[in-house]
Amino acid sequence: MNKKNKIKFAIVGCGHIGKRHAEMISRNRNAELVALIDIKSKEKLNINQYDVPFFNSLESFLSSDVVSDVITIATPNGLHASQAIQVLEAKNHVVIEKPMALTKADAEAVIFKALQVSKQIFAVMQNRYSPPSVWIKNLVENNVLGQIYSVHINSFWNRDERYYTSDSWHGDKALDGGTLFTQFSHFIDIMYWLFGDITNIKSVMKDFKHQKMTAFEDAGIVNFEFVNGGIGNFNFSTAVWNKNMESSMTIIAEKGSVKIGGQYMNEVEYCHIENYQMPNLEPTNPGNDYGAYKGSAQNHHYVIQNVIDVLNGDKSITTNALEGMKIVDIIERIYQSAN
């Protein structure tokens, strides 16, 4: 990729996340937004500020004469894998919003196609860029904590009728996949990024208050062991009344303990480590605002910059296709345990 050329992006799916990508692409002087794609009209989507060609289907865009380097997929979860394969077959690199797919087999099919056509897959897991995440990654990689004994993740959020509206794909099993895919995959990714794969999974899931809104669970308790040593649990709920409560990770280790918390693991709440002085961290970007909801941290500008850097040969991918597939694999095994 010639460094003098801007990287050309098209986006399929212009909801909250797609708009976020469009904004970050437009702000980056080394990127160019060349097209937007969605089944809804441009007026209904409220994206008239982007003076680029608009298409009502991925197929119509791919058959047009608009040239792109990268296509970002920000559509409902259940469409990610099939659309990624379409994009790759058209010889475009692909950015896939989380989750990469809803099954490991579908994620493998995407990777196989990328290898066939020699194109890159960028899996979006922007919480890796949050200062507390970078800090903890540093602690683990440099063995500051010593042997990891146990890891405890709590994600307690609110998702109610304001989120699961009748005209939304949220709550549909085939398009959404479940709370672990749509709400909490970021935190499973952070866990895997830090400590590796899990085994001996035992999970229990319930649907307490979403029977009329979703086709899946709204709460769960998951216990497991890490392949690399140590035990862990992940407790989650979308049945919290009115607003999000927290997403936290507590690590108990040989040389000390740490906890990051806040609504999306954005704050260091506890740090007590042998012969260690806690540094001052940069503030975490605020959460994405989806009306009544906060989502993950607003770090998509780092994702866009990483795509540009990789295609220019300057850096490696922050979240590669194999990692994207691994998160899908872990979530799939957690659900299988519950069933």
Task: Give your account of this protein's structure.
By secondary structure, the protein is an alpha/beta fold. It has two domains: 7-123, NAD(P)-binding Rossmann-like Domain (Rossmann fold, 3-Layer(aba) Sandwich), CATH 3.40.50.720; 128-291, Dihydrodipicolinate Reductase, domain 2 (2-Layer Sandwich), CATH 3.30.360.10. Helices cover 31% and strands 26% of the residues. The chain is built from eleven helices and 15 strands. It has helices spanning 16-27, 42-45, 58-62, 80-89, 104-117, 131-141, 173-176, 179-182, 185-195, 300-311, 321-338, and strands spanning 7-12, 31-37, 54-55, 70-73, 93-96, 121-123, 148-156, 198-206, 219-226, 231-237, 246-253, 256-261, 267-273, 287-290, 293-297. The strands form three sheets. The protein has a seven-stranded mixed β-sheet with strand order 8-9-10-7-11-12-13, covered by helices on one side. A six-stranded parallel β-sheet has the order 3-2-1-4-5-6, with helices on both faces. A two-stranded antiparallel sheet has the order 14-15. The longest helix is centred in the last third of the chain and has 18 residues, at 321-338. The chain starts with 6 loop residues before the first strand and ends with a helix.
